[in-house]
């Protein structure tokens, strides 16, 4: 089975960038070019409207006197039509007048023409004259050659008023071919600058893609050398600070992993998890050596049996605990009763509670269920109970509560005892970080880190707070 070739990320990013820039340049240039012709023609029409109205005002006096064809106004139109401007602007010159001007009377008959070719003809049926004489905006576009789209001529007319009545019209005509060279020049300029800017933007994109590719190669080389145990300097990045952040994270990870092997962490985790049931069995066995009523004796015997089973389960689950950090999602999820689990935790800790003369309270709302892995959640709660027993004051109180809070299930344990120092609150879930107990001995510092990992697998949250007269640890879990 064939596989796709491995294309470097920089090339893939540049290819995507090339497509986006190319499509943008194409559609922008196409839109601009398509809008050039109608925009120029609209501008031309607006100029013709102004010119026609100006001439209509100038023609009013001569029109009211009678024969406009012999008037000074008609002679001026003829002189205008034969002028040769000899002007030069942009890349083109202007040697002839492109405008044609003709005047009609109120019946639509041509009485003056700057080109002197249609005087006396009836123009009353042409839209520019027909509409204008009726008080509406008169304009038309007529093709001189039906096979040549550039042969169209734009005509715009304005009414000649006298005492509020329309007595004639003035039409200004301009061939669209006269403005076509300027449209073509604008198109070429748009295409030139669009292509130039596209090339420059693509060059900039290629440089950025190359920098990204080289930065990734540096990080990849750095990670590979770290994996082989080589001493290598951390790469630096002056432009892409995100890569610098990632480089710092890799450096921090290397420092944390140096001198620590997985087997050592595994053994420490196992030792920490076996400590609690062994302590419970030891406490129960010491109490059993004293005279006790049969009912209490059976209770502590049962504690020993339960804790032995707990150790057996721990041994059976060692491989699962070893995979905890790498576990992508929970396995063996079931609906669990919070009250039932908490009762198990309290009952299993009866021996240590009795030895320390600690009162344990349980206040769980009935009917609260959570969806999760029974073994992992029990181990998390056992860890919290062990911590509470380590730090609770003599003759103090440990209080378990479970209730719903803001669409979440909150399971909390309170131990009456000293507060956690402020400097340590944010570090309690760090691996191997531990505070000394009453006897000055520190734990392995894995318990709360273990609880936090279990909460992450359950999409939950671990919160530790100093409260009045003690410390409160709360687990927030989603409702099923």
TrEMBL record:
Its main location: membrane. PANTHER family: HISTIDINE KINASE (PTHR45436:SF10), SENSOR HISTIDINE KINASE YKOH (PTHR45436). InterPro entries: dCache_3, HATPase_C_sf, HATPase_dom, His_kinase_dom, HisK_dim/P_dom, HisK_dim/P_sf, Sensor-like_sf, TCS_sensor_his_kinase. The lineage of its organism: Bacteria, Pseudomonadati, Pseudomonadota, Gammaproteobacteria, Vibrionales. Residues 269-480 form the Histidine kinase domain. The chain crosses the membrane at residues 9-28, 190-210. Its EC number is 2.7.13.3. This is histidine kinase. It comes from Photobacterium chitinilyticum. It catalyses: ATP + protein L-histidine = ADP + protein N-phospho-L-histidine. Keywords: Kinase, Membrane, Phosphoprotein, Transferase, Transmembrane, Transmembrane helix. The keyword Ribosomal protein does not apply. GO terms for molecular function: phosphorelay sensor kinase activity. SUPFAM superfamilies: ATPase domain of HSP90 chaperone/DNA topoisomerase II/histidine kinase, Homodimeric domain of signal transducing histidine kinase, Sensory domain-like. It is found in: Cell inner membrane. One of its GO terms (cellular component) is plasma membrane. It comes from the Bacteria.
